[in-house]
Specification:
The complex is a heterodimer of chains A (about 650) and B (about 110). Chain A is mainly α. Chain A is about 70% helix and about 5% strand. Chain A is built from 25 helices and 2 strands. In chain A, strands 1-2 form a two-stranded antiparallel sheet. The longest helix of chain A is centred in the C-terminal third of the chain and has 47 residues. Classes of the chains: A mainly alpha (about 650), B mainly alpha (about 110).
């Protein structure tokens, strides 16, 4: 195909490999040997990874338009892929971390029968495809398509064990919550289209920033354009934020994420920690020309993030399910990312996205090793003493935990500290200082709940309730991805030590070419306070070892946290029960008497009428003839009388 | 009413029409009262022939050949109708246990 340049072809192949993998597995996977599934499922992801790396090495930075998808008057939707440093960065995270997790699933899902095994990898490939479409899309329509498709694949994978009622309910909840976000995205796109008559990123951003191409992507500083359209831009930014909040499980649309832990653990690692839930962060970074102009919405992003970070971290203190602790910690960490992009430190937020993908995927996969060995038990109180039985898993989990807490030299320190430092040092913004305080408090709490999780699961004496006396070691195919992620979580931070004011800052240099650069540096006081926060967090991590029972001293606080601030109860009272009541009313008093009544009465009436009329149909030939002749005689008489008169 | 000259003798047209009326009524009564399907078919032929007779009479009286031509056509149709009707009857009585037309009354309401 001569009209496709090679970079253009490779960009398309990034999407086509997972699509082909999903199609092949969906069509034939379960009839063919399991070895085939094992090769095709992760293979498709790794092939996409190679394509992304190829684009990266060729320094591709382009907006490829392949064809016009819809054209109706002034409304035109092209199929275009925006390949720039931001989408390639996300593509690397999705296919790289995704590839490791899908490979890990080969071992984790081994107990499934052949059909379910192939179904799992089909869904995984569909997810990778949707997520890549989301980040590579060059216009709002395909962004929304990818956005909705990741919601769908998340639904399919949460409900993977569809025989379990709780899994089905959790999947439905996640889907409904995500659709709220989809509606926000679609409405936001409507507003932008009405205002700027375009659905492509380039068209909209050009209109918003008022900069000539190609500067509209980075903005043409120092002139930040605020025209008469600023109200529409604010509205669009808030509507897009609804989408981001729902997808990234931020307050107040966060309740689906802890329930989503019903899915298999690799799913939790890939979708509900490393990639999909960070899509909201990507969205805000991608829409930075809009948020740079829409200052109120931009502030709302930061506040949402900070509040979510704190509340989720406090809830994590009292959870006993290891995956739920990780789920709340994910919410909390994504809160940091929202805080960063909300402050305008886009590359700091994206760096934390990368680092979080490393250490949270590591934590989930290591937890998966434990759950797999414990015959699907997830209650931490029933583990205990796994240090002696599962040494490599314990060590990798510890690396992940320390990275989550943000201890030097693990990757989490550099990324989290860059965010907190950016908040602390943002010039001329006293509100940012409050947000820093919330973030720092969260960091300290993170130390506590991570410590509680690790000591409870791996230290001490084995719990008498432990389901397995001598847990088996994880298979090699499961341990290798965990090991790679552990290495990344340990040394990954050295690609960007900007938080300490020295050393390289590869991620920021890479991303600042396409997002608004952070125009201030962390001051010395910020570094000092950051290290103090880290020491405090690490201290609490250590202190959690000797602290039990955990929170008997404040029963009201424990109750509040165990009920997760009563969000589920409030939503149940405000939305679910009234809806149930309305539905019940409609069923009892509208559907049955009115709609059913009309239908049934119509039937009864028709039947009675038919019974009356059927008397005339005797079935005897001569009766019909008699009627016919009688009619003819009457007609003849009328004719004769008329002719004679 | 004008007279018609037939074979040297002169007859009033109403005689022919009267004969046609009698034949038609006989045919109608036959269709109505008889149960044997074969007889019913014959009665229908009788009615058709009565109609033909009326057609020819009026044609002759009005000096217009259309009526005679139409009588020829109606004979053709009658022949076709007899063929189809007989074929159906033969088939019905071969495949079904029916003695007369009253046994074929499944379509009653």
């Amino acid at each position: 195909m001569s009209w496709l340049t090679s970079s253009q072809t490779i960009a398309l192949l990034v999407l086509l490999f997972p699509a082909a993998g999903a199609l092949v597995l969906a069509g034939r996977g379960w009839r063919l040997p399991r070895k085939f599934t094992v090769i095709v499922g992760p293979g498709a992801v790794w092939a996409a990874f190679i394509c992304v790396v190829n684009l990266l090495l060729n320094r591709v930075n382009a907006d490829f338009t392949y064809w016009t998808w819809i054209k109706s008057g002034s409304f035109e939707v092209p199929f275009n892929l925006l390949i720039d440093n931001l989408s390639l960065f996300m593509g690397l995270v999705i296919t790289g971390v995704g590839g490791l997790i899908v490979t890990y699933s080969v071992g984790y899902m081994e107990h499934e029968d052949d059909a379910s095994y192939a179904r799992f990898f089909t869904y995984m490939d569909i997810f990778i495809l949707s997520m890549l479409l989301l980040v590579l899309a060059g216009n709002f329509v395909f962004l929304i398509i990818g956005w909705a498709l990741v919601g769908l694949s998340s639904y399919l994978l949460i409900g993977f064990w569809y025989q379990r009622h709780s899994a089905v309910v959790a999947a439905r909840k996640a889907f409904v919550m995500n659709v709220i976000g989809d509606v926000g995205m679609i409405l936001g796109t409507f507003v932008l289209f009405v205002q700027y008559k375009s659905v492509t990123f380039s068209g909209v951003f050009q209109g918003v920033s008022g900069c000539p191409p190609p500067q509209f992507l980075v903005g043409c500083f120092p002139s930040v354009h605020r025209g008469p359209d600023s109200l529409a831009v604010e509205l669009a930014a808030f509507l897009l934020l609804v989408g981001a909040v729902a997808k990234s499980a931020q307050l107040p649309l966060h309740t689906w994420l802890p329930d989503a832990m019903e899915g298999p653990t690799p799913v939790s690692a890939l979708i509900h920690a490393a990639t999909m839930v960070t899509a909201g962060v990507y969205l805000v970074a991608r829409m930075h020309p809009i948020y740079d102009v829409a200052t109120y919405a931009h502030g709302a992003v930061a506040i949402t993030g900070a509040v979510t970070a704190l509340l989720a971290a406090t809830i994590a203190i009292v959870q006993v399910d290891i995956k739920r602790v990780l789920a709340y910690s994910t919410m909390s960490q994504i809160g940091y990312m929202f805080l960063a992009v909300g402050l305008g430190a886009y590359s700091a937020g994206m760096f934390h996205l990368l680092s979080h993908a490393f250490f949270k995927a590591l934590l989930f996969l290591a937890a998966g090793n434990v759950i797999h060995a414990m015959k699907d038990e997830q209650d931490m109180r029933k583990f205990g003493g796994l240090w002696n039985d599962m040494r490599p898993t314990s060590i990798t989990f510890l690396i992940g935990s320390l990275s989550l807490v943000g201890v030097i030299p693990f990757v989490g320190f550099f990324s989290k500290e860059q965010i907190l430092g950016a908040a602390f040092s943002k010039p001329g913004d006293s509100a940012a200082l409050i947000l820093w305080g919330v973030g720092a408090l969260t960091a300290v709490i993170t130390g506590f709940y991570s410590g509680r999780m690790w000591w409870l699961s791996f230290w001490g004496k084995p719990s008498p309730d432990r389901p397995v006396e001598h847990p088996h070691a994880p298979r090699l195919v499961m341990m290798v991805p965990v090991g790679i992620l552990a290495v990344l979580a340990t040394v990954g931070g050295f690609i960007q030590t900007r938080a300490l004011g020295v050393g390289p800052s590869i991620v920021s240099d890479f991303l600042d070419k396409v997002v608004t650069p952070q125009r201030w540096e962390e001051n010395g006081a910020g570094i000092g306070v950051g290290i103090a926060t880290m020491v405090l967090g690490a201290g609490l991590f250590w202190w959690a070892r000797s602290l039990r029972p955990w929170s008997a001293r404040f029963p009201w606080a424990q109750r509040l946290l165990e009920h997760k601030y009563y969000f589920d109860e409030i939503y149940d009272t405000v939305f679910v029960r009234p809806m149930d009541w309305v539905a019940g009313f409609a069923l009892r008093d509208v559907e049955k008497p009115v709609i059913d009544g009309v239908v049934v009465d119509t039937g009864v009436l028709t039947r009675a009428g038919a019974a009356g009329l059927s008397v005339t149909q005797s079935g005897y030939f001569r009766n019909y003839v008699l009627v016919f002749v009688g009619g003819a005689v009457i007609a003849a008489v009328i004719l004769i009388v008329k002719a004679n008169s | 009413m004008s007279n018609l000259v037939i074979g040297g003798s002169t007859l009033d047209a109403s005689w022919f029409l009267g004969l046609a009326a009698i034949l038609f009524v006989l045919g109608t009564v036959g269709v109505l009262v008889r149960r044997n399907p074969l007889v019913i078919l014959i009665s229908i032929e009788l009615m058709l022939n009565a109609a033909n007779l009326a057609l020819v009479t009026f044609s002759r009286q009005l000096q217009n050949y259309e009526g005679q031509l139409f009588a020829l056509m109606s004979m053709t149709v009658a022949a076709a109708e007899a063929v189809v009707g007989l074929a159906i009857l033969v088939d019905i009585f071969r495949t079904r246990d029916a003695e007369d037309i009253d046994d074929l009354s499944e379509l009653k309401g």
